[in-house]
Amino acid sequence: MNTIVAQLQRQFQGYIVSLYQQGYLDNQFTELRKLQDEGSPDFVAEVVSLFFDDCAKLINDMSTSLERPDHVDFKQVDSGVHQLKGSSSSVGARRVKSVCIAFKECCDVQNREGCLRCLQQVDYEYKMLKTKLQDLFNLEQQILQAGGTIPQVSMN
Amino acid sequence: MGMETESQFHVLAVDDSLFDRKMIERLLQKSSCQVTTVDSGSKALEFLGLRVDDEDPNVLSTSPHIHQEVEINLIITDYCMPGMTGYDLLKKVKESAAFKSIPVVIMSSENVPARISRCLEEGAEEFFLKPVKLADLTKLKPHMMKTKLKKESEKPAKEEESEISKPGIEEEEAVIEILPLHQELESEQLETMVSSSSNKRKAMEEVISTDRSRPKYNDITTSV
């Protein structure tokens, strides 16, 4: 039993470290994990889920706004990017946030092509992160089911 | 929720984003505060018990009169909100005789110095850059303590406290004695300050430097 738990914990640690190293996550994700406890054991998963739902909706709305070349609602796009940037920042979704920064720049100069590219990129990034985090949460579940505790990962 | 600590602060959090409300709620709960969240400035005013005339009439919820005698120790609000901004809310609170003593904290995802000083000048105690961290919330305690102490000093002889549900006055006095100097200094400092001063500038500097002082990720240690 112990070895299984230890193995899983090592796997978890390795995986989450790699997510930080590859730039998927940043310090803010660590902050998020601090808010989870026995009273709110699913906090991170809930918040992350909310974030991904937001992503899907905002991307969809922005896509509609950018659809017609002659009639782009840049104000709406700007609002969407602003929200996305905010929530990705709060969750620690570093790559998504980076794209949002570039996205905002395209929006500011009303560059439709640039916006479309960023939109595609942000869609890709959030979906990628979603898969990665799902894997991470699965590992967590396995650890808990094996009777272990989820390791703390602290950054210096 | 089990409340062993007698001084449970009640914070009213205002943000139009569901996501941000969830975040700030958890942050505050983790800091041992009781939280009420609302999604607009007008709902915040309603919750406090202020009439909302010219604002969004759709604000009224199912119960006709939300006139609550709830003691709010702090209001924390987002700056960018449709309709009534956090700044508008701040102004309304500070203009009201009944609620101007409630400390107000503004949050924003944008670091705009002009915005920050405007809010501080209007009477905001702190300005937090989003994402707000647990460590930021430790700055709130002194402001909230002030309101409790103020209430205590305003009612020296009263033994029954209807607003603050405490087991006994003696314990309250004990709390005051434990932190006399710090609290006295705080309230004195703030009473002598009429407009923005070093105290507030410090807050602004603190806030602006938060970004820079955030530790860059270079190493991870893991512990089980």
Automatic annotation (TrEMBL), chain A:
Residues 40-147 form the HPt domain. Keywords: Cytokinin signaling pathway, Phosphoprotein, Two-component regulatory system. The keyword Nucleus does not apply. It is found in: Cytoplasm, Cytosol; Nucleus. The modification Phosphohistidine is found at H82. The keyword Phosphoprotein applies. PANTHER family: HISTIDINE-CONTAINING PHOSPHOTRANSFER PROTEIN 5, PHOSPHORELAY INTERMEDIATE PROTEIN YPD1. This is Histidine-containing phosphotransfer protein. It comes from Camelina sativa (False flax). The gene is LOC104760724.
TrEMBL record, chain B:
Residues 147-171, 187-224 are annotated as: Disordered. SMART domains: REC (SM00448). It is found in: Nucleus. Residues 150-159, 202-217 have a biased composition (Basic and acidic residues). It comes from the Eukaryota. The modification 4-aspartylphosphate is found at D78. Residues 10-145 form the Response regulatory domain. Keywords: Nucleus, Phosphoprotein, Transcription, Transcription regulation, Two-component regulatory system. Pfam families: Response_reg (PF00072). PANTHER family: TWO-COMPONENT RESPONSE REGULATOR, TWO-COMPONENT RESPONSE REGULATOR ARR8. This is Two-component response regulator ARR8-like. It comes from Camelina sativa. The gene is LOC104782617.
